[in-house]
Amino acid sequence: MSIFTKITSLFLISLTLMIGIGYQIDTINTQKYEALVLQKYLLDGRKIFAWMAITSGNELEGKLKTLNLTKTSPSTPKRYIMQQPHTFGLFEIFEEQSGDYILHVRYIDEELYLRDTTLGEAKKDGWIVGSLVALDIAVLAIIFFIILRMLSPLRSIASSMRKFATGDYQNRSNIHSHDEIGEVAHTYNEMARTIENLILSREELLRDVGHELRTPISRGLFALEQIPSSSAKEMIKRSFVELDQLTQELLEIEKLQATNTIDTQTFSVETLVLEALSKLHLIDESAITIEIKTNFSLTGDLKYLTLALKNLLDNALKYTDELPIILEITMNRISVFNHGEPLEKEFEYLLTPFTRQEHSRTTQGFGLGLNIVSKIINKHGFSLVYHYDNGFHCFSIITNPQH
Q1: CATH 3.30.565.10, applies to 265-398
Q2: Does the pTM of the predicted model rise above 0.85?
Q3: Cβ proximity of 174 and 211 under 8 Å
Q4: Does the domain at residues 164-261 carry the CATH identifier 1.10.287?
Q5: What are the boundaries of each domain within the chain?
Q6: CA 20 to 30 Å from 200, out of 15, 37, 163, 246?
């Protein structure tokens, strides 16, 4: 749950509680006010009935003033609080549409609609409490929006970090506030600048190392051609070839670790197979049986996926004890089968650098092939799975892992 969701949830809970408290306070105040009105109007009503029986005119109005009651014109009741018939008339209390409470007294043919002028103060107290609750709710809402505004730069910083993580190393945060969030943005920019410089230095070093290593290797191989054939020459030549292969594989691993982005394109699995076979330089094409049961399309870096499939085929050829090996293509799955004894170690162990099976058909290899395959597959979000069945090892690239 994001911090914005948490703050919004807390605000909604607080707002609901405040509205509930305000409603309860208003209900309690209304009940108290109505109880006060009912108590006063009941006492006043009994006196007025007695006065109407013996007095009238100015004398009655003078007595009404002693009760703080003033005459008012008849109005439509909103609701009745009390209705009490009397032998000589009617006595009732009701609330007007305006919210004021009226005492209605009818004695024989004479009717009075009376309003108490002192009850307004009691009602005013209720309005003050209600206004304070409403003000508290408004302040709560203002604080909520201020907090969201203060935290909104975090979204921008998080977006910059995500872009940086996907390979946009020049991306920086444009937050320049002078608070803790601005300090976080400044720290991120400094960190991003340092990491970018390190990555650029690493990539430059890789290019220089690759060039500097391959140049003497090529020079040595050229010089060997000038030496007469002998067992020593073949040993030296094989050493140079292995050194060149090791350099190339180490550089590929470093390139995969140094970058988070790949050049993607859409191509058919047949294209991938043809590219991988062309990299193997097979002398005997019958060493591989190809079974394309489904020709599907996939999206990825053709160069790296070619290298991954080529390494799987190369390993199968090295470690099989029976040719041909099998390359099988089914929907979203590229599988390489080779016959042999069960693995001596766990499959995950073979994915680490410089690890390999002890028994192979050739002494070539440095135990980097599967490690490179694993890194390439992970970069693409694919899966590399292994199982052993009926004497056959099966390494599969699953291009759609959710299925």
Answers
A1: yes
A2: no
A3: no
A4: yes
A5: 3-147, 164-261, 265-398
A6: 246
